[in-house]
């Protein structure tokens, strides 16, 4: 079911500071900030030779990363995104295996304009998983 790692996400309290750190201190190429109101986050992608790191800042009053940042005020690793060929087939297989699919269970359009879904961290060794159909 799983393909490549698409990105690893880090929740950050201040996207401007985090972007400067990745660009100027760590010397990486970074994208422009992109507000994603449907996801309650603003994102910046750090573009690495083999994958991407997604920096996430809360957007709006109901951000899904707000509680995480309250518990981890300086930020922290938030999720890992794996690529799948068929997200609906993957969802149905995982649901049948007892995994909790977050939200209403229907894929949303993610930061790359492709369908994404999230799986509950408590069902996957304490790691929040995002699936992206590529
Ligand atoms: C746009 C896009 C893209 O790439 O295309 C994105 O990535 S959007 C990225 C942002 N969107 C999302 O993350 C959407 C899916 N996420 C969610 O629905 C939420 O973040 C949840 C995963 C349900 C967690 O929500 P919240 O923290 O408010 O709930 P909660 O406090 O009840 O947490 C339940 C338990 O899970 C733990 N928990 C919470 N977030 C966690 C995380 N990221 N990794 C590992 N564990 C985590 C909490 O500590 C708690 O454990 P204890 O009970 O042991 O204390
Ligand atoms: Co993501």
Automatic annotation (TrEMBL):
Q: What keywords were assigned to this record?
A: Cobalt, Isomerase, Metal-binding
Catalysed conversion reaction:
(R)-methylmalonyl-CoA = (S)-methylmalonyl-CoA
Q: What is the top-level taxon of the source organism?
A: Bacteria
Give the molecular function GO annotations: metal ion binding; methylmalonyl-CoA epimerase activity
- Endpoints of the signal sequence: none
Q: Name one GO biological process term.
A: L-methylmalonyl-CoA metabolic process
Matches recorded under SUPFAM superfamilies: Glyoxalase/Bleomycin resistance protein/Dihydroxybiphenyl dioxygenase (SSF54593)
* This protein's record includes keyword Isomerase: yes
Q: Which principal EC class is assigned to this enzyme?
A: isomerase
User: What Enzyme Commission number(s) does the record list for this chain?
Assistant: 5.1.99.1
Task: Read off the PANTHER family from this record.
Answer: METHYLMALONYL-COA EPIMERASE, METHYLMALONYL-COA EPIMERASE, MITOCHONDRIAL
Say which family it is in.
Belongs to the methylmalonyl-CoA epimerase family.
Q: What is this protein called?
A: methylmalonyl-CoA epimerase
Q: What is the lineage of its organism?
A: Bacteria, Pseudomonadati, Pseudomonadota, Alphaproteobacteria, Hyphomicrobiales
């Amino acid at each position: 079911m799983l393909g490549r790692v698409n990105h690893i996400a880090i929740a950050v309290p201040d996207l401007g500071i985090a972007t400067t750190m990745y660009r100027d201190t760590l010397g990486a190429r970074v994208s422009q900030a992109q507000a994603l109101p449907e996801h309650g986050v603003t994102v910046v992608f750090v573009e690495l030779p083999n994958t991407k790191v997604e920096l996430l800042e809360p957007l709006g009053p109901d951000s899904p990363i707000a509680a995480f940042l309250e518990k981890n005020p300086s930020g922290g690793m938030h999720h890992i995104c794996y690529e799948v060929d068929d997200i609906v087939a993957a969802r149905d297989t995982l649901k049948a295996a007892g995994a909790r699919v977050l939200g209403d269970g229907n894929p949303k359009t993610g930061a790359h304009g492709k369908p994404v879904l999230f799986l509950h961290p408590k069902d996957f060794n304490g790691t929040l998983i995002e699936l992206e159909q590529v």
